[in-house]
Specification:
- It is built from 16 helices and 14 strands.
- It is globular, with a radius of gyration of 22 Å.
- Strand 11 and strand 12 form a beta hairpin.
- With about 425 residues, it is of the alpha/beta class.
- The strands form five sheets. A five-stranded parallel beta sheet has the order 8-7-9-13-14, with helices on both faces. The protein has a three-stranded mixed beta sheet with strand order 1-5-6, with no helix packed on it. A two-stranded antiparallel sheet has the order 2-10.
Length: about 425
């Protein structure tokens, strides 16, 4: 098990590389040259890839040929009150079930780090708070960093192994954008002062165009260990990702920060037009507006299409889905200060489809309205980056009512007969036979 101290936490490096080409490389235009130099800065060392494939990663992002990565056991120094957090996993890949672990399980949860509940220990997740309240286990298949599409893919794979009757499908605010790229590191450029660890691997993703209703599902570009080793090869990486939607957005954002927006006018103007944006891109302001609009629009469109796939899967396999919309503290603060939310069109879609969901943005807004503190003090009650234990308890209580209304038979806490019986193919993993 790896232990990561706070002093070794990755720091974001947002610098514009000085253009220079590798020997033998050809730059067809300045835009390609910028992309190549940026991608060069993201390359892993051969040793780092070998360590990743061997499962020796501090953040627990072990290689997976279909999903891109899954978690492994680890201890990280990033918990509440400067504490260490330990992550354990059951044989089926779920985070360790603590409450009612030997009982049959009818509820599975999927999503990203706000589902896996990063920064808290096994018993401090919102699933465990709910399980104790309902008096039955809830399995947590969340994986940190996942997109909506990855969560959907994991759900399909997992439900084929151990089926559940009820699914809680959590969608975090940033997950919409994660749908759109084949390599997570393109958006999350991080580096350690001590290593070149593989902390943001490639992933399955989708290519979309809301203007034409295009929706194409794409596998991870590194489905084998041999393919993963190509992440050390600049020529391969450049050819693989040069047309990546998110890479174009990132380069434009970097040019805006560097004071050279004109380098992105042509490419973003063309991309924006393809995506249905009708305004010209010929100034820093219009570039910023176009980049923000097409990124949000494409991400939310992708998630709408993925939710439709979740619904189709649930209908085919006779499951019921409760969606949970979760958010980071920065997004919540911004919504409180501006009175607007970036994902309003997605919420409108959920309402139009009459889907059952819990909106944690609204739940926090209602709670905040009853407080006499400012928003900065409010978020400290529940967030430490991810949710603190108190944040997970808040989420559990916000989820509770709609989940209970969905369950049939009702859980023990809401069943006057004092007896709950249901069928489940799930096999307990903490019983005597597994010890």
């Amino acid at each position: 098990m790896k232990i990561l101290h706070r002093s070794r936490l990755f720091v974001l490096i947002l610098v514009l590389a000085t253009p220079s080409m590798s020997p033998g490389a050809e730059a067809t235009n300045p835009g390609d040259q910028q992309k190549r130099e940026y991608l060069k800065s993201l390359l892993y060392s051969p040793a780092a890839v070998e360590e990743w494939l061997a499962g020796n990663v501090l953040w627990g992002e072990a290689f997976d040929p279909i999903l891109g990565w899954v978690h492994n056991e680890r201890t990280i120094h990033h918990g509440v009150n400067d504490s260490f957090v330990t992550y354990h996993y059951d044989p089926d890949g779920a985070r360790r079930v603590m409450a009612y672990a030997d009982g049959p399980c009818r509820i599975h949860t999927y999503g990203d780090s706000f589902t896996s509940c990063e920064q808290v220990n096994d018993g401090e997740t919102w699933q465990e708070y709910l399980a104790v309240h309902l008096q039955e286990p809830i399995r947590n298949f969340g994986i940190g960093g996942y997109s909506v599409y990855q969560s959907y893919r994991r759900m399909v794979l997992q439900e084929a192994q151990t089926s559940s009757q009820y699914i809680i499908f959590n969608i975090y605010g940033d997950d919409h954008y994660r749908n759109l790229t084949g390599w997570r590191k393109i958006r999350n450029f991080s580096a350690s002062t001590e290593s070149n660890e593989v902390s943001s691997p490639p992933l399955p993703h989708v290519k979309v165009n809301p203007a034409t209703e295009q929706f194409i599902e794409l596998e991870t570009p590194c489905p084998t260990p041999e393919a993963a080793k190509r992440l050390t090869d600049l020529d391969w990486v450049f050819e693989q990702f040069r047309d990546d939607f998110t890479l174009k957005i990132v380069i434009a954002q970097r040019n805006l920060r560097a004071g050279t927006p004109e380098l992105s006018y042509s490419e973003i103007g063309e991309l924006a037009a393809e995506q249905g944006w009708t305004k010209k891109v010929d100034s820093p302001e219009s570039l910023q507006e176009a980049v923000d609009a097409i990124f949000v629009n494409a991400g939310l469109y992708a998630s709408r299409r993925i939710v439709e796939k979740v619904e189709a899967f649930a209908a085919e396999h006779h499951k019921k889905v409760l969606y949970v919309l979760s958010y980071g503290n920065k997004v919540f603060r911004n919504a409180q200060r501006t009175g607007r939310r970036f994902d309003q069109s997605f919420v409108d879609f959920m309402n139009a489809k009459q889907l059952t969901y819990v909106d944690l943005m609204q739940a926090h807004a209602d709670d905040f309205a009853e407080r006499t503190i400012d928003v900065d003090h409010y978020v400290k009650r529940y967030w430490i980056g991810h949710y603190s234990p108190s944040g997970n308890f808040f989420a559990a209580m916000a989820i509770k009512d709609k989940l209970v209304a969905m369950l049939d038979p009702k859980p023990l806490s809401y069943n006057p007969s004092g007896k709950v019986t249901f069928e489940s193919p799930w096999v307990p993993v903490h019983g005597p036979e597994s010890q």
